């Protein structure tokens, strides 16, 4: 199985509370309250902030990754998630084609990203564009608010440019020992 989609799993109220909670911390071009930096550019244009993996949203997302890992029969050795990244894609916001980490990646840490998760926080009626696409398809995965999409971190994907409104999402990556 290439990906797991759980449409509308998280309630509208919970999604909107995450947006409100994190919106105050969003910044652009390296101006972050918590020490993380990111510069917008041609490859990616978003505002982002970070939340601890042990926060309520982090624990919720990790539990969904663990469940999908079992149900999809990936059965990867996973031991943690990275910080949760909350992204705001305003008009023109996008993220060009990329993979979160190739399976062959080795950085000396002993761990690597194995599964990626995206939680769609925005009501799709509030923005246009901003579609999550996987390589080989021009069809959006889903646009339903509260949906969770989990996929192998080695899969190429993109977020198309937002043409109006604002799209919010939360993403994280599950890590474990290097693939053998």
Give the amount of beta strand, in percent.
35-45%
| Mean of residue pLDDT values | 90
Mass-distribution shape: globular
Largest sheet entry: 7 strands, antiparallel
CATH class call: Mainly Beta
The third-level CATH topology is: Jelly Rolls
How do you describe this structure in short?
This protein has helices spanning 12-23, 56-71; strands spanning 3-6, 44-45, 47-51, 80-81, 84-89, 94-98, 111-120, 127-129, 132-134, 148-152, 157-159, 162-165, 167-177. With 180 residues, the protein is α+β, with helices and mostly antiparallel strands. It has one domain (3-177): q2cbj1_9rhob like domain (Jelly Rolls), CATH 2.60.120.620.
